[in-house]
Amino acid sequence: MRLEARPRAKVNLALAVTGRRADGYHELSSVFLRVGLSDRLSVRPAESTLRGDRLRISGADDLTVPDNLVLRAVRLLRAEAERSLPPLDLELEKRIPLAAGMGGGSADAAAALSLAAGIWELALSPQREGALSLALGADVPFFMGDHAAALVEGVGERLEPLADVRGGAGLLIVTPPLQLSTVEAFRAYDRLDRSASGAAETVALLAQAMRRGLDGHGLAAWSDRLATANDLWPAALALEPDLARLRSELEASLGQRLLMTGSGASLVGLYASAHEAAVAGRGLLAALPDPLAGATIFACDTIGPDPRWRYP
What we know:
alpha+beta; Alpha-Beta Plaits; 2 domains
């Protein structure tokens, strides 16, 4: 028996930091949109000679195996079962950029929970599934729900599914050769002067618009407002000041504003279709070859599982 999943990435269309709990965790309010870029995870029972779970990773040289979220998810499920379970052989092919604000690790963890439960024939109640996913990370409950979009609040425990973009949308995602740690981004955020940004209001208004229904053109029309609706943008600049210059150059070339997803460093342009995003990506690459050296560029829809165009 072998089970496989294509866990898809997300982008934060808007992100507001709304508070900090006594345990140090920050509370957020954010609109998540799942996009057509995915990893590949397969799980099967291991050979009898294997004494423990084995995870093999391809496509990401910098990703370490022992503390990978996929293995953490399997270990958590083992503890939940409270009985002996046979070892698993897991293969993860990484296509979602690492530490880029797109939730690739969280998507993989959610897929690992589902696939391992399927191999082991474990039935989890929605309450236990929610508790396990939240224990793995704030983004994991969103991915466990397989939602197209959602308003996510608190530390990920409050989630309202939102309607997908009617007819789909196009996203041009530019990931520079930087890896921004979410932990370091929040530390930087705590050190900065945090005057009112308006991000929370934008999150609420966008969620309301998506409840009523948006198509690709309608979502793209939010580009100007969403470009300033991420409270972690100043923190990302504190860690990587060159990100501001890169975004300015990209926006000047594209003729439109870009948003940053999560804690960065991926920058996202919104388009009515994936075709329009791909045309913009090719033009951007031709116009700015030097600033984009080492970057990865994707033109995605909201379905996938693979992008319509990518570079390299």
